[in-house]
Every structure is written in structure tokens, then in C-alpha cells.
């Protein structure tokens, strides 16, 4: 049985997937996440902070033990927005080498988008419909259009961490702060759609990453975070808008009262939900399908 390990290090979280070939396709052996906020402050300072590197190092040490236990045939780690933007990215590379013994691949936004698309559509029905896949991360959001493979892709620097740090400073944010974030997001979304889906040909919207899955869990009224309920759940625009409005009116402490809310996401989920709502508005798509499969699955497939 072939076993591979995929690691995705983004602006907000670092995730590990150990996947094995099964009789009906790849199966998860381990799928786990740590919120490390690698990109904390990068939009302002341009550098990865010492505290962020320390948090990331702790997560990498945990992952090294898990990888050693399962002895995968291949390991691939990719790093995205925060590592692309940081002037001291070499410190991050050295850290990964010291903890895992491999070199992280700092990939472009377009490559990130294509890996995300491959992971997201692998277990969706092959119905011939054109899909727009959006991966809302901490520092960037990737837009990819295609059927079974990506036809066009574009990455823009909007994400839940970046938009929170740039605009949503109060707890809860003020109306003026929300309006500024909306204007910023709209400008970037329109740019991305003009490149990734210029003719608005996409028939369905698929949303990836923690902002989308958390909004979906809240929209479904789940009493705990249940991936099996969230994966491929379809949510209408009205529910997305309702959840977004509620999150932006709540304080961080109030958001933490929800059993589906990861503590490391509570301060940035309002911005992530806002990005999703605006994408649906600007793309003219009134429903979104949430996927628990994303870039991690695309990375694993690339080395299988």
C-alpha cells in the first residue's frame, strides 16, 4: 500500500495529510491542523515574526513525529501566501529543514490554485458543469475555473487574516471598518473574476478552507464541527449573508461560544465570511458547495 504525506503551510494554519491507497481510492490515515498564524503582521511589516516562527516550529515538530510513525513513501510540503510575501522567508525554510529534513516549496498563487482545484473536484460528480473553485486562505484567495481540470486561475491578496489586520480592528468591527473591507475585497474579487472567469461561465461555486467550512457549519446549525456533514453541503446566498452579518456583529468572545468555532479562527472568521459573501455576489452564483478536500489532497495526488 502506497502512503504519502502532504503538508500545506498557509498564512493562518499548517495542515498535514497522510494518505494511503485504498481499494476505492485514496483514504485518510491522518488529517490534522494547527493554527500557527505564520502570516501575523506580514501585511504591515513584510516579515515573519519570531513568535510566528516559534509556533510553526512547534507544529512541525509534532508533524515530524507523526510522519516518522507512518513512514510514507514520499513527503511534499508547500508554503503559500505568507512565505511568498515575507522578506525573511529563508528563516522559515531553515526552520522546516531543521524540523522535517525537507525543503518547503514556496509555490505561486496560480500553482496553489491549480492544486486546490485538483483536490476539490476529485470526488465531485463528473457532470460536465463548469465550476468556479475558490480557496479562501489567511493571506490570499485563489480562483480557479474548470470542469475536471483547471482552465484558468488567479490568486489575489485577500484573506481572513490580511483583511482583519488591514481593516477590522475593533471588536466587533465598526460599520466604517466593514465598509472599507468590502471595498477592498470587491476590487480584488472583480480583478480575479475578470481573469479566472471573464465570461461568468461558471455554473457552480465550490468553496474551500476553514472560513468556508466554518460558515457552512454555522449555516447548518451543527452542534459540533462535523466534517462528514460539511463536506459537499450546499448553502444558499441568503444563509451565507445571514451568518456573515451575525459574525461581524459579534465579539470574539461571542463567536467562541459556538461549538463549531476553532479558537484560532474566531478573530478572523468575520473577514473570511465577508470574502465568501462578496464572491457569491460578484460572481452571480447563489449557492456554494463546501469541500473538506482542497490543496492538501492536490499535494498528495501530485506525489502518489
Automatic annotation (TrEMBL):
It holds the Pfam family Ppx-GppA. Residues 20-295 form the Ppx/GppA phosphatase N-terminal domain. It comes from the Bacteria. One of its GO terms (molecular function) is pyrophosphatase activity. Coiled coil: none annotated. This is Exopolyphosphatase/guanosine-5'-triphosphate, 3'-diphosphate pyrophosphatase. It comes from Stackebrandtia albiflava.
Amino acid at each position: 500500500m502506497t502512503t504519502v504525506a502532504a503538508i500545506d503551510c498557509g498564512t493562518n494554519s499548517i495542515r498535514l495529510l497522510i494518505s494511503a491507497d485504498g481499494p476505492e481510492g485514496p483514504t485518510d490515515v491522518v488529517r490534522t491542523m494547527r493554527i500557527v498564524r505564520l502570516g501575523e503582521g506580514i501585511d504591515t511589516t513584510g516579515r515573519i515574526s519570531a513568535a510566528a516562527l516559534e509556533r510553526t516550529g512547534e507544529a512541525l515538530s509534532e508533524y515530524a513525529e507523526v510522519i516518522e510513525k507512518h513512514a510514507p513513501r514520499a513527503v511534499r510540503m508547500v508554503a503559500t501566501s505568507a512565505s511568498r510575501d515575507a522578506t525573511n522567508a529563508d528563516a522559515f525554510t531553515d526552520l522546516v529543514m531543521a524540523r522535517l529534513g525537507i525543503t518547503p516549496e514556496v509555490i505561486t498563487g496560480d500553482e496553489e490554485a491549480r492544486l486546490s482545484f485538483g483536490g476539490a473536484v476529485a470526488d465531485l460528480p463528473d457532470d460536465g458543469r463548469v465550476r468556479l473553485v475558490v480557496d479562501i486562505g489567511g493571506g490570499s484567495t485563489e480562483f480557479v475555473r474548470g470542469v475536471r481540470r483547471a482552465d484558468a486561475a488567479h490568486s489575489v491578496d485577500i484573506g481572513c487574516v490580511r483583511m482583519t489586520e488591514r481593516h477590522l480592528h475593533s471588536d466587533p468591527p465598526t460599520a466604517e471598518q466593514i465598509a472599507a473591507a468590502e471595498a477592498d475585497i470587491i476590487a480584488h474579487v472583480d480583478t480575479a473574476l475578470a481573469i479566472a472567469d471573464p465570461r461568468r461561465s461558471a455554473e457552480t461555486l465550490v468553496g474551500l478552507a476553514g472560513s468556508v467550512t466554518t460558515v457552512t457549519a454555522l449555516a447548518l446549525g451543527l452542534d459540533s464541527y462535523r466534517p462528514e456533514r460539511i463536506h459537499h453541503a450546499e448553502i444558499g446566498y441568503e444563509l451565507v449573508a445571514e451568518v456573515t452579518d451575525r459574525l461581524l456583529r459579534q465579539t470574539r468572545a461571542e463567536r467562541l461560544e459556538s461549538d463549531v468555532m476553532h479558537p484560532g479562527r474566531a478573530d478572523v472568521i468575520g473577514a473570511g465570511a465577508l470574502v465568501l459573501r462578496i464572491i457569491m455576489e460578484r460572481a452571480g452564483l447563489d449557492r456554494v458547495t463546501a469541500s473538506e478536500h482542497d490543496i492538501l489532497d492536490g499535494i498528495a495526488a501530485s506525489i502518489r
